[in-house]
Amino acid sequence: MRMEKEIRNADLFDIMCDLLYLLGCGVNGKMPAKTYIKTFQKVYDEDKMQLLYQFSKAHFVDALTGTVLKKAGVKLPSVWEQSIAKAIRKVILFDQERAEIFSFMEQQGIWYMPLKGVILKDFYPSVGMRQMSDNDILFDKSYAGQVRDHMVSRGYQVEAFGQGNHDVYEKKPVYNFEMHTSLYGAGHNPDWGNYYDGIKERLIPAGNGFEYRFSDEDFYVYFMTHTYKHFEGSGTGIRSLLDQYVYLKRLEDTLDFDYIDRQCELLGIAGFEKENRALCRKVFRMDDALAEEGADRFHDAFTTEERKLLCYYMTFGAYGTLERRIENRVKKYGNEAGGAAKLRYVMRRIFPGMDTYQYYPFFYRHKWLLPVCWLYRLLRAVFQRKRREKILREADTVRRMRL
């Protein structure tokens, strides 16, 4: 099956190819070919330019693609220009705020480690190219109360505390911090939870203070588990593949892949990591000759399996969709007849496993009251409009699924 048929829309397929090409130019420091830009300016009218912008925005790479086009002399819509400026401003604001939080932790003797995008943004060629919606920080959970008090003193709203493996703090205009007390918790893969339990003992001091970091290999392995979590959950977009590429591009000559392979085997993601490692290099690696080819090379460059995997990334935004998460969960019961799999999913949603009740601390401590919790969850679903709408979407998705 050709990727065009999987995308099921010729215009969208062309936009997808252009997006991949522009991303490859951006992260490799290549200018798009002059012949490509000349054709691009003829083909992309105002409506199609808006489609490319919206597609880029859905994958949270609009600042990167816009920067490449702007450098190539393409006039961008004003909303796209604003996106680039906002992305740069947001990174600067995050950097300043994060530095203050780290200073507080240093003063209090709290060990901490920045995670994910906080690290990966520095692997991109310029400020703002790797956009961020939040900052993730792992820290000593015994100081969770002190950290909460400090965040509140700085004007943050506590969106979640003591629920799951991270506390969430938000403040206008753009600040969102996820303060992790562990890397994986209840509801995540238990093998991952066991593997990362007591991770502090395996971290490396980042300097003379209380900041720590992963080894380059361990960061990559953790990044791949995180990517797989989203891939198997709500889905994930092309930025995950791009992040993997920029990290490997910088460090692939020094990484110990024998060690990486062993850890990925332990964590059950070895096949996923190898497939994605090969795909990200094939999609984004770009020498001068490939830059001259433009976006046309993507039409026939991939095997059937590579097309399917790439299509999966391209048909979901950066953070996936509710529908994809539901479909993936139902398909876990795919060895049963379709109706039975759906029924098991519905029953699991009504009567969840014990890991879910950690989000309801009172009922988790008093398990004999779990039937009351079932009623409480049901009443919330009935009387809270947003929850009710979400559950109706969920029910409709399950109903329409074909297994």
Task: Write up what this structure looks like.
With 403 residues, the chain is an alpha+beta fold. It folds into two domains: 318 residues, Beta Polymerase, domain 2 (2-Layer Sandwich); 75 residues, no CATH class. 60% of the residues lie in helices and 7% in strands. The chain is built from 20 helices and seven strands. The strands form two sheets. The protein has a five-stranded mixed sheet with strand order 1-2-5-4-3. A two-stranded antiparallel sheet has the order 6-7. A hairpin with a 6-residue loop joins strand 6 and strand 7. Helix 10 packs antiparallel against helix 11 and helix 11 packs across helix 13. The radius of gyration is 23 Å and the shape is globular. It starts with a helix and ends with a helix. The N terminus is likely disordered.
Task: Give helix % range.
Answer: 55-70%
> How many strand elements?
7
Strand order of the largest sheet: 1-2-5-4-3
> Compute the gyration radius: what is it?
23 Å
Oligomer: single chain
Would you list the SSEs in sequence order as H and E? Answer: HHHHHHEHEHEEEHEEHHHHHHHHHHH
Count of separate DSSP helical elements: 20
How many domains? The number is: 2
CATH fold topology of the largest domain: Beta Polymerase, domain 2
Global shape? globular
- Structural class call reads alpha+beta
CATH architecture of the largest domain: 2-Layer Sandwich
Distance between the termini: 20 Å
Q: What is the CATH level 1 assignment of the largest domain?
A: Alpha Beta
Task: Work out the strand percent.
Answer: 5-15%
Largest sheet: 5 strands, mixed
Q: What's the pLDDT, averaged over the residues?
A: 86
Q: Low-confidence stretches at least 5 residues in length (pLDDT < 50)? A: 1-8
